[in-house]
Write a structure and sequence with these properties.
80 residues; mainly alpha; Spasmolytic Protein, domain 1; two-stranded antiparallel sheet; 2 strands; 35% helix; 5% strand; elongated; P_trefoil_CS; P_trefoil_dom; extracellular matrix; secreted; cytoplasm
Length: 80
């Protein structure tokens, strides 16, 4: 019985994670081409690139002094 429950749990986790990964497609690169001066913050201190993109935002840490996690061109709100 324990082995069957464990197998069922593994199958559930594999199917659940693969469907979540397929559902999230990310943002196209051109939506994240926001000039540094126009970036609107969409994150919080020490946010990771994955956490940022999971919020539907763009991440670019190449320019210091501006938000690294910022709203894409078409969005007006971040998703939490």
């Amino acid at each position: 019985m324990e082995a069957r429950a464990l197998r069922l749990l593994v199958v559930f986790l594999v199917l659940g994670s693969s469907s979540w990964a397929a559902a999230y497609q990310g943002l196209s690169t051109n939506l994240c081409e926001v000039p540094a001066k126009d970036r609107v913050d969409c994150g919080y201190p020490h946010i990771t690139p994955e956490q940022c993109t999971n919020r539907g935002c763009c991440f670019d840490s190449s320019i210091h002094g501006v938000p690294w996690c910022f709203k894409p061109l078409q969005d007006t709100e971040c998703r939490f």
